[in-house]
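We store chain and fold; example below:
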Amino acid sequence: MELVEILVLVCTFAGLLLLGVPIAYSIGLASLATMLVSMGPLPALATEAQRIATGLDSFALLAIPFFILAGHIMNRGGMARRLIQFARSLLGLLPGGLAHVNVLASMLFGAISGSAVAAASAVGGIMAPQMEKDGYDRNYAAAVNITAATTGLLIPPSNILIVYSLASGGVSIAALFLAGYLPGILVGLTLMVVAGVIAVRRNYRGVRVPLGLNILWRFLDALPSLTLLIVVMGGIVAGFFTATEAAAVAVLYALILALVYREITWRDLPGILVEASTTTAVVLLLVGTSVGMAWIMAYVNIPQNLTEFLVSVTESRIVILLLINVILLCVGVFMDITPAVLIFTPIFLPIATAMGMDPIHFGIIMVLNLCIGLCTPPVGSVLFVGVGVAETTIAKVTRPLLPLFLAMVISLMVVTYVPQLSLWLPMVFSVGP
């Protein structure tokens, strides 16, 4: 009977995706179809509704709408432009300087906003025209922006790390936030190395920037935006407030800063609130339906069967981690990061912990792995935003993406097999699972 249920789940989900049904509805309907086969109409409908409701019944999830709203305010509040100018003053002189500026600005803005899509839109919208004007290939500029934007999902505050905390059964959000810093910086640095090599080969030169006091001025101009990182993370680590309360503080801080910068007015707030509410609704619907799918997968013993399969293939920790990474890379191509984390964390986390792996370390591996999927068709949300702001196509940007993909995969392997990279900061600040 389990085989029939698994086939119904997989075939229904794949069929709905091929028909173009939005992924949240595809997940929910596939879960419901499997429950109908397993338990009959009334219990199936009641269970599906209950799973969705209980999946959203978490105090930690309140941080997501706040961070989304803060991100929208930052996107409209002139912070991206100031961070780009600061990054340009630091890295503009290097060969391929604007590519390095794109990466650093995406890291900073993504970290502040907690959203890869917001970083791709805000930074890409400014950097793409500048890079093309300076002689950079438009498709290469889009590729740099797309891959660099994902670093904000590792460098805190990050919505997806909050989602992983929920899916893992309560791993410390503060520990996850701290654990994401060094891996996120590693991804950014590897992207810069690739950008530097490409710059030398294509003769992309640096841009002239005033030095000395100009760097100090750009730093001071960007400092209020950068201070948000200190306020949020400092408050969480010091125990002044929870991640949810930190998200509310981030909204207030971003709003005050945007009003001080005079980039938005009170009249702009209704539109910003509507945009943030729309994004929040999409994310939380994904969360609710994904929790339902995770439950039905556990009900039909998919996690247990997959665990037995992996253990039967090999007992080597190195090989099992490699297999998990390959599976997640394939999952990321066809599924958005939020449902993937919610559905596959309960499957793979028990395997990882049985091998003695820290759940914090595994969370960083999973998020970094699935970040790569955000840059790939057919469901890569960051890819679509990146090609949109650069006014190019997915077909044209695929080839420039390949060396940058390789850099991200290399970073993934380093993070996977060097756990200290993820666990050192939580150990320093004595923050554990």
